[in-house]
Amino acid sequence: MKVAKSGKTLLTPIMIEEITDPMSITMAATHFSEAVEAGMRNNGDIHSAELCKEVRQWWESEDKPGISASERYSLRRDLRKRLLECVDFKSFPPPTSYVRGWPIQLWEALLANMDAKAYLYTLCRGETYNVRAFSSMIGETFFSEVTLNDRRGQGTVSCKEFGQFIGNALEQVQIRLDPDRKFSYNTCRSTVYNLVEKAEPEHTGDVGISTRNTAQNNLPDNITLKSHTFDMPERGRLAGKNKCSTVSLDRNSLQKGSLGVRWEKARTNESKMLPSQRMGIQYDQNETTVLKK
Hints:
- The protein is mainly α.
- It has helices at 2-6, 13-17, 25-31, 34-42, 46-63, 69-85, 104-123, 138-147, 159-176, 233-236, 261-265, 275-278; strands at residues 98-99, 102-103, 209-210, 224-225.
- The relative contact order is 0.12.
């Protein structure tokens, strides 16, 4: 709150007191930016500044291109160490809803995500993978491929077309994942990586780097980290500009998310109608009799 009230960053007090946009990446980037971290350090809030830094580094390891596999592993390590220090597995009873203020669902999901990303290096063919290829949006990715069958370009399909499009998407996925496939098969409108000849390229850098067991790292010591094409320095040049969002303090500023006058006043919205009135049920407002079933 001190940083928000200082006015030196894009963070404003209303963004701390209320959840303005919980699904916005740019809002999260503002909360955990380097400017906010520096403001916390200047105020003497070192513990909060370290948490801000660790969360930002974890997000960079998950999304930023041009970072080597070993660097991605290192960026996740500090937050993983903090999460493991929050609980004593020898104590009883174990944590239930919260782990030192962290919701247990979030605490478990973060640890599972970091450990899974490390184990995937040994499970994937070629011992490497694109860090953006694994997420919780597999269903959305599948249906986005389904909408590619819509030649009209509207992004939606009718009930009549849905069955055919699902069959096409399943067939495409099966062919794409076929280990014996010897031909190039394009399933998207634009490509970034080679599909066949260099499906398993000769990766450079980080080959032979293995994790070691320490007091903070209990992962297996036989994991070899290899950089994917997405991790190559050349991909870093294609990264978009980092964007941050804020809530303006100006009284006359544009209010994001507000609907226009025509949308509010000249558009049908039956949700504002009372169910009783919509169903044509008549009642006397002066009547005080309570009907019971």
